[in-house]
Amino acid sequence: MKNVLILGSTGSIGINALKVIEHLSDSFRVIGLTAYNNYRLLESQTRKFRPKYIATHEKNLGYLKKALSGIKVKTMDVERDLGLMASLPEVDIVVIAMPGSAALIPFLSAVRSGKIVAPANKEAIVIAGGLIMSEAGRNGAKIIPVDSEQSAIFQCLEGRNKTDLRKVHLTASGGALLNTSRKSFDKLTVKDILAHPRWKMGKKITVDSASLMNKGFEVIEAKWLFDLSVEDINVVIHPEAIVHSMIELTDGSIIAQMAVTDMRLPIQYALTYPKRLPTGLRPLDLAQWGKLSFLRPDFNKFPALSLAIDVAKKGGALPCVLNAANEVAVEAFLNGEIKFTKIVEVVEKIVLRHKPCKSVKLNDINLADQWAREETKKLIG
Predict the structure, then answer these.
(1) Residue 274, preceding bond cis, omega within 30 degrees?
(2) Which candidate among 134, 148, 194, 203 keeps its CA 20 to 30 Å from the CA of 99?
(3) CATH superfamily of 2-143
(4) CA 378 – CA 344 distance, rounded (Å)
(5) Residues 6+ apart with CB under 8 A from 48
(6) How many other CB atoms sit within 10 Å of the CB of residue 321?
(7) pLDDT tens sequence across 273-325
């Protein structure tokens, strides 16, 4: 029986992780759950799964302590205690389902404690990939990605000699704007951007998917997770989202990981690794799809992707600046303060203003993050 801590249990990844644990209840137990604002759902999850620890924003703690007074559970502050929770001796696996750079501290805490870490969050690795991977290696932690694309690469590479690898092909559905003219981008509303053709996700990641900034983040993430150069990573548009990613070997062979588009698959694999267990999900019916298509990305239409790839090549603290500026700009778009096309324009200006810093120590990352957020807010304001 392995104890699982889910950071961000009320989001789509967290909810699916709980479904997987419920399906495999003989093997896994929920030891901890966290949510920032959705304390009502956190209350319901606590009643059902009876974790030993929960955390939420301090403004919700009073309500939860009273509502759950009949249940033995320790309540903690989501803004102060996530690092502590991730390092608890009882925790075997940490599922990082919370969005944004706030996941960095608990991620580092988990790898420094030698845990199995299953991240769906990409921002932490984007801003501090070198530090995270170094600490994981030093402390014997295992990182098994939950994002479908990174999970696919992980599965395709498993058991293979790294010298046999020529290239990684990172797939992208194309987002909500794949078939939308670039000329009409300025007219798009928040509602238009949030209408993803394949999945219902959080608002921020849906905007990043539309701009392809999310795929740029995944290039940076894959670079660190699999010890690749940026030139080893190729982005390919695959609207059907059946092939979750591929690897190309030195002899020209391509190995693909294919499955139905259900996040429970990569989540379960991360929890049960290296075992594979029945999921209870319907299998993939290729004949039903008929054909699968692959396209090259349009870098002129989606400049955020080329910007992120350029940042990935330069490295240092620049990925942190990219992420921080993008978080602020996307929030401004969602609040109606800027147009969709202004997101990448603003982010690029901030990236160009940043003075190169090769150091990637935690303090340097924090300073770069703070600087980028302040500069972006000034620019938007």
Answers:
(1) yes
(2) 134
(3) NAD(P)-binding Rossmann-like Domain (3.40.50.720)
(4) 16
(5) none
(6) 28
(7) 999 999 999 999 999 988 999 999 999 999 999 999 999 999 999 999 999 99
Q: Determine contact, residues 170/234, Cβ cutoff 8 Å.
A: yes
Which residue bears the tokens 């030093």? Answer: 138
How many C-beta neighbours within 10 Å does residue 191 have? 7
Category of 351 on φ-ψ map: left (φ > 0), alpha (ψ -120 to 50) or beta? alpha
- As given in the structure block, the two tokens for residue 218 are 């995944």
Topology of domain 156-263+293-380 in CATH is Rna Polymerase Sigma Factor; Chain: A (1.10.1740)
Q: Cα torsion at 16, 20, 23, 26 (round to 10°)?
A: -140
Domains in the chain: boundaries:
2-143, 156-263+293-380
Task: Tell me the residue type at 132.
Answer: I
Give the Cα separation of 21 and 149 in Å (integer): 22
Provide the whole-model pTM: 0.94
3-state secondary structure of 367: helix
Report phi then psi at 368, rounded to 5: -65, -40
**DSSP helix/strand/coil, 222:** helix
Inter-residue contact 327 to 320 (CB < 8 Å): no
**C-beta of residue 231 within 8 angstroms of C-beta of residue 146:** no
> In which region does residue 345 sit, left (phi positive, over 0), alpha (psi from -120 to 50) or beta (all else)?
alpha
